[in-house]
Each structure stands twice: as C-alpha cells, then as structure tokens.
Amino acid sequence: MELEAFRTQVREFLEKEAPQSLRGLNDPKYAYWGGRKPEQPHPDATRYCELAAERGLTAITWPKEYGGGGLTPAHERVFQQELAKLGFPAPLTGFGLTMIGPTLLQFGTDEQKAEHLTKIVRGQIRWCQGYSEPNAGSDLASLQCSAVLEGDEYVLNGQKIWTSYGDKSDWMFVLVRTDPSAKKQQGITFLLIDMATPGVEVRPIRLISGASPFCETFFTDARAKANNVIAGVNNGWTVAKALLGHERTMIANVFGASGGARNAGDRRNVLADLAREYVGETDGKKLADPVLRDAITQLNMDSRCFLSTVARNADNIKAGHRPGPESSLFKVYGTELNQRREELMVKIRGEQGLGWEGPGYSALELEKTRDWLRSRGNTIEGGTSEVQLNIIAKRVLELPGD
Amino acid sequence: MQLSLTEDQAMLAQTASAFFAENSPITRLRKLRDSRDERGYSRELYQRMAELGWTAIPFEERDGGLGMGLAGAILVSEAMGKNLAAEPYVPSILLSGQLLALAGNQAQKDAWLAPVIAGEKVIAFAQQESKSRYDAAYVTTRATAGKNGYVLTGEKRAVLAGALADAYLVSARTSGSERAAEGISLFLVPAGTPGLKVTRQHRIDSRNAALVELQDVQLPADALVGERDRALPLIEAALDRATVALCGEMLGAMSEAFNRTLGYLKERKQFNVAIGTFQALKHRAAKMFIEIELARSATMLAARALDAKDAEASALVSVAKARCSDAYVLIANEAVQMHAGIGMTDEHDIGFFIKHARVCELTFGDAAHHRDRFATLNGY
Prior knowledge:
- The complex is a heterodimer of chains A (402) and B (380).
- Chain A is an alpha+beta fold.
- Chain A is built from twelve helices and eight strands.
- In chain A, the strands form two sheets. Chain A has a four-stranded mixed β-sheet. Chain A has a four-stranded antiparallel β-sheet with strand order 2-3-7-6, with no helix packed on it.
- The mean pLDDT of chain A is 92.
- Helices cover 52% and strands 15% of the residues of chain B.
- Chain B contains twelve helices and ten strands.
- Classes of the chains: A alpha+beta (402), B alpha+beta (380).
C-alpha cells in the first residue's frame, strides 16, 4: 500500500474510530500491556487496542495471517508519526510484540505461530522473559534451571530472576537446561510455559529505589508441553541470542532513537532551569555555582553529541546504508548519560534530593530521588556496560578474543 | 539537517583522503621539521589543493567559491588531519579567507580574496596577543587614525601560517578599553610593509606560526577592512568557521591515531598473546571508539548549522570543539600509553599525534572555554 494512502487510513482511524478520550495521553503511563486480566491505565484502553488490532495496527509489519498488518517498517514509522501528531499512545505494548513475537516469526513452526501470534496481536496474552538466574547474569549460558522430558511434557525445576512483570504475565519464554552433560551453550532449550501452570511461583523484587516490576520465578515440578519447544531441543542458545538482538534494539530505542524526549530536556536547558531554582544566579545572570554550571554544560553537550549520533544513524539508514558501527554505542552511552543526568539532578537539589518519603519534600523531589536510585540499574539490565564494551571491542574493533 | 553524506560529499571525502595519503605521509612532516623548513609546509602541494578546487569549497559563488559550505570543508580538513598535512587550509582559507569574505569590500576581495582562493597567496590572521588567551575581544594593538590613514603598533603571537605569508589581517583597537567589544577594527597589512616584523615561532607541532610585531606601521585609509570599531562580531563568525574546520582536522587525526593504536594492539605480543586480548585495554579502546563517533556527529552537525545560519550554530560549534578537544587529547594520550616505550621515541610516528592534539586542543579555545561559552550563549 502507498505510504500516503496508509497515512490517510491511519488518520481516519485515529480521528473517527479510536476512542477520543485517549487523545493527548501519549505518555508511558498510559501504555496498555494487555493480558488475561489486563491492567487498565485508562477505561478505554482495551477497546482502543481491540479496534486497532482488527485493522492490523498493533503489529503492522507482521503477516496478515497472524493478525498483523502485512506492511513494511516504513508503514510502521508512518503510524508512529501519526500517533505522535495526534497525541495518541500506542494501542498495545509489551514483550509479546517486541521480543517473543519477532522470535516466533523467525524460528516458530506454523502451529506455534498460529497458536501464539494472534493472541499477542490482540493483546490477549501478556508475555515475560525467563533468562537470568541468580548464578547466571552476564554469563547467561551457565544457567541451571532444568527441564526433564517425561512423556510429552517437560518437568521444570529451578529459579529465574529479573523477570520483568512476571507477576502480571500469562506466559513466559524461558531458557532451560535440557542436557547437563553438553558444553554449556549446547544443552539449552528455548521453551514456552503458561504461568498458570501448577508449580510456578512468582515473587516481586524490591529494589534500592523501592517497589519494582522485577520478579523472581520459582519452578517446582512445573510441567510444559513438549510442543512448546522452539527451534528444537538443545538449540535454545541460537534462539536466545536472536531474541537478545530484538531486546537490544528495543533498549537502544528507549535510550537512542525514540529516547529523544529524555535528551530533549537537555536541549531546553531543563537542568539549568532546575539549578536556577535551587542554587540561584549571580548578578550577571550566571548560575551561582560555577562548578555545577560546568557540570550541567558538560552533560548538555554530551547529550547533544549523543542525540546527533542517533540522528546520524537514522539518516544513514534512510540514505540506504546499513546501520553503521555508531549504533552499537547507544546502549552503553545512552544509559550512562541517563545515570549522569539523574545524579546531577540530585546534586542540583542538594539535601532536598535526599528524601525517601514523608514531609519536607515535594512529590517531585521524592520521585526524582527514586529515579536516580533506579537509574543505577540502567547500565546493568539488558547487558551490563562492561559486556557492551566487550561487544564493541569484538564486533566493531575486531580485537582478538582471549 | 541531514547528517549523512551526499554522493558529492562522499566522493570528495574519498578523493581528498586518497590525495593526502599519497602526497602527504607523515614522513613529509618529519622532513619539514628536521630541516627546520622556514615555511613548514609545501607551497606546491597547497597549489595542487587549490587546483582541485578544495580551497574554493567554503566560499559563496559570488565570491568565486563553490558554495559547498563547511559541510564540504570539514571533509578536506579531515583528510588532512588523517595525514597531519600542514598546509594552511584552516588558517588561510577558513579563518582569514572567510573573514575577508565577511568583512572585505569588492576592491579588497578582488585584490586579495581571489588569489587566496586560487592558492596563490596566503593571508594570516594576526589576532592573538600575549594576554588574550581565548578572549577574542582582548585587543591592545593600537591603530591611531592619522591624516592619510592609520598607524599600527602592537605585538601579535601564534599567528597561524604567519611566516612567509603574503599579507596579514590584523585586529587593532581604534577605540575602547582593552577588553571592550566595541572599538576593534581590521587592517590588511601586506608583507614587507615598513615597521612590520615577522619571526617564525617553533611550536611542538612543527607547523607554521609566527610572532608579528608592528612598530608604527603606516597604512593607507583603504587598508581598513569592514566597518571601523565593529570588527568583533565578524571575527567571531570567522572563528566559528575556522573552529569547525579545525574540528574536522582533529577528527581525521584522532581517527588515524586510534586506528594505528588498534593495529598495534592486534600485533604487539606480550605474555605470548596480542595485548589487544587484555580487557583493560579493550574497554578503553571501545570507549575511544565511542568518543570518536560522538565527535564526528557533533562536528557534522555544527558545520551544517553554520551553513544553514541556524540560530544555535555558535553553541553547536562550542559543543563540537569541546568534544573534539577532549576526545583527541584522550586518544593521543592513550595512543602513546598503549604503544608504551616505543611510543615515547621520536623515531615512532605516534608522537606526532600527541603534539598535534595538544596544539589543536588549545587553538581557538579549549574545552573549558567552550563549555563556558555554551552556557553563556544559552543564558545560564
């Protein structure tokens, strides 16, 4: 379909058919994640998702037979542009769309795709990721959660950690060890399991910043049908790596391509305004603390450099070049930049940045202090900065392995 | 602003890169240095750059240029930087040439800008004084109006490409106190004018820089370039352009220093393995790679913002210069550290980069200066 014709269609949908109550709510807190018992960030969220799904707008690039739009990434961009223009949130978000869906499209059998993709597209099933374990973090391949075949079922025993939204999800894609005697990457299987299965227990994790979406998941003789193995037994590592690619794209998007909003604040001198409020100005209208002024400028400049690198990458792709090596820095630099920004905001607020709860602090001050604590995780989750630097050294700089 | 190269730009980058790789290996700079060459660069090579049209790139067509802007000029200066070519592209084309194009009248342009673009003449901008540091408004050289013109007295230093230049654009105070923004004027002083004394300075990068002393230099009234007392904004505009071109040069040089270091990490063996297998070095290499990518984006953006006369252009020039200064110094320091003992020897070429880096870092303002300027331009 012509892009402009598609644009017209999208606009008509948003202006005439979509619930107008959602207009202007394009904020992450109105994101709709779907599922069997969906959270309702807004009373019309489910209806908006269903209306969009009927028109193939929740997964525009997926094949039509699975409820997708059967269109191209260019159409996807048009849709995003129109959403932004009219101030609508995305009709549906979640790890089904961003992680397991693309992985099933790549590795799933026809039966598996038919079974799962349509439910993702319609927002009926919410997915979570079972990768990390207490003893398998950066060294993911050393995971120990076991699955033993009994008849046509696998029996799972072990523990997963950092399961984002595990307590709100319906299904998990999980890495399990099916051959303990093989070399560590070779005995892993990629399996799908219903979280309602007996023997699956989920506990939320409290972080240094307070409550969090992260959970621990425990498997005690939990059973999964063998036909939920993706890409064959003991072939899980290949699938896992491909999915990590989708995850990195998603994270790079958060801190890079569409993370513009975060950095746009630096462009509007949000930090300088904040410092003016907390630190004051000299007669010459300069920030009263010259050291803080310099630190704010360093961050503003770094942010501009980062944003223009994101823009350059996008321009190169638009001009028909493959993504250049510059894209590999988005995760490591974007997350560090975000941490430094949060840290600087605490410094600017001085002791007003130390509140945990209660009187003497504004709601915003309390929120920003916790944001700072939470941001310490940015350089850990989705691959630590150290692992990212290893990847750059190996793939981009082609430095020898050890 | 598009941050990918057009086909024309990509071709220019490729041609310039190949040209300097062939005609200006670092052994050439070494020879110029060791022979204490008075000029410090090759007039003949510079002439060939002009014949290829590169000196015309940043000028408007009405001034006899190609109108390819700073976005084009940084591709030439980057190729020069990669090979540490010492020809006065930034001093004579991007600084004095641009200043003359901004401030000069038609007669002055005909007499001087045309031969500058043709590579036949080199003009040096005599601005820096012993106490000016990075303050463009600090000018104490005096120009006193007389019956038939002006009399100039003062001392300028670190005049880039000043030795054996054909003429000098001199900033001098016609009114106001030593740091006043108003009261600065520009004068065109041809080489050989009585009272003008030029002495080659020898700096760590072996490039052409000079002391320019003016003792009662008598100039006709038409030596004044642009409006009297009002030169500062034009000087700042020309400095912005020269700064971005210098960023291009730094980008080329830091990339080259980095690539040489990467090569060394892969080939040098200790403890029976390539030292590039050590994570302590890998992570630092990866961080240098990130620094270069960010410096490249910032430089490309600043060049395009200047070309588009974007209101934010000067602030973006400061972003680029601060980044390039910090990144190049980091990379040059790391390059020597990772080459270790051999990197400290004069025999090895990597040392040329650490010297070039230091000079570039401090030319047209260091990173701290540009952070201060950025904050001021943004009203905090």
